[in-house]
Design a protein that fits this description.
6-stranded mixed sheet, 37% helix, single chain, 2 domains, signal, Extracellular solute-binding protein, SBP, D-Maltodextrin-Binding Protein, domain 2, transport, alpha/beta, 376 residues
Length: 376
């Protein structure tokens, strides 16, 4: 009996699928890091034409644009579209490509959060400037390496800052998702925090910010819902979580989902297995398991989030998630991540005037295909 071959990152669902009793018709192929999945594991599997007839992947909505965009089926064009009757509309709409839904959401989340160590912090900051002031006082009082950290080399974590300075980031139909003025203010703010006042480290990734916070060497850390369990265990349940405090307006967070993408060449006789898998994963039992064990958010339309069933960290994360928005799976968004990543390379923020840097970034954002890698 053919199984559906699913390609995904270890961190997406960890090893929870092994508890779901789906191994008789689904086989999970795990990659340790995105680079392996994106450049090697999935493309190499796709080269095998027979394998294409039973392939799928699970990941964020931008997976559609990580390859050529031609590998995956439009679910709306198949009988499988009935599955959307059981999922949250905003998550289903987060997979729309050219007017058609392309991915089936299995879990929501992937939103940015501000974490704090309750051994050092007794109140949540109300503004971003208040966060900086509070973190510096705590750093001095407890002789910490940093008062506040986040992955300053990963552009996903500066999106709430851009929003806080007025960039709607595709949350609306605004003509300019990232206006010049918002970008200038963000560049100036990051330059001040990283280079002028040296409050934040230069080009840290999660590999640096996470252990710094977990080892008690920083009081605050911006991360995501995927960090909650590990952070809470490391701090021996002295972890606090809150929304990223406001700048000129709220620093609204972005979100995503773990979508099931199906090969466009998937054999129709495997459709029933897809339906069975999705029905099982969207069940109350497994949605609850995903929330409690991975701290991800529900994707099922019928899931009633009862705060009394979950711990304080989950409830707080859920409150923040409800106010977040999903970045659409556009090539413009994929390109933005690459362009902003270049901006965060060491010393780039201080390599030119703020205005010239902002103009350069906006020009690169217009060239949508400049970083769009087609894997053949």
């Amino acid at each position: 009996m053919d199984k559906i071959e699913v390609y995904l990152l270890n961190s997406t669902l960890e090893r929870l699928p092994e508890k779901w009793k789906v191994n008789e018709f689904m086989h999970f192929n795990y990659s340790d890091v995105m680079k392996s999945l994106y450049l090697d594991d999935f493309p190499n599997a796709w080269k095998q034409k027979d394998l294409r007839k039973k392939m799928a992947t699970i990941g964020a909505n931008d997976y559609f644009n990580k390859w050529t965009g031609k590998e995956f089926m439009n679910i709306d064009d198949t009988v499988l579209k009935s599955i959307y009757n059981n999922v949250r509309v905003e998550l289903a709409d987060g997979s729309i490509i050219n007017g058609k839904r392309t991915g089936i959401p299995l879990a929501g989340g992937n939103h940015q959060l501000l974490f704090y160590n309750k051994n050092y912090v007794t109140e949540e900051p109300k503004t971003f400037n208040g966060l900086i002031e509070m973190s510096q006082k705590v750093k001095s009082k407890y002789n910490l390496d940093y008062g506040f950290v986040f992955p300053t080399g990963a552009c996903y974590f500066i999106l709430p800052i851009l929003y806080g300075f007025g960039a709607d980031l595709w949350s609306t139909d605004a003509k300019d998702p990232i206006p010049f003025d918002s970008l200038c203010k963000t560049i100036e703010y990051l330059k001040k925090l990283i280079y002028d006042k040296k409050i934040l480290p230069i080009k840290w990734e999660q590999e640096q910010s996470m252990p710094c916070f977990m080892n008690g060497k920083a009081a605050f850390c911006i991360g995501g819902d995927w960090n909650i369990r590990e952070f809470d265990e490391a701090l021996e349940h002295k972890l606090g979580v809150c929304e990223i405090p406001c700048l000129e307006r709220e620093c609204r967070t972005t979100a995503n989902a773990s979508y099931l993408f199906l090969s466009k060449e998937l054999e129709p006789e495997l459709y029933k297995k897809v339906e069975t898998f999705c029905t099982k994963v969207l069940s109350y039992e497994i949605q609850t398991m995903i929330i409690k064990e991975l701290y991800r958010m529900p994707a099922s339309k019928n899931f009633d989030f009862n705060e009394g069933e979950f711990d304080e960290l989950t409830v707080k994360s859920y409150e923040i998630y409800k106010k977040s928005f999903i970045m659409p799976p556009l090539k413009e968004v994929t390109n933005m991540y690459h362009v902003l990543a270049d901006l965060l390379e060491p010393n780039v923020l201080i390599s030119d005037t703020t205005e010239n840097l902002a103009q350069s970034v906006l020009k690169q954002l217009e060239d949508v295909d400049s970083y769009y890698k087609i894997v053949k």
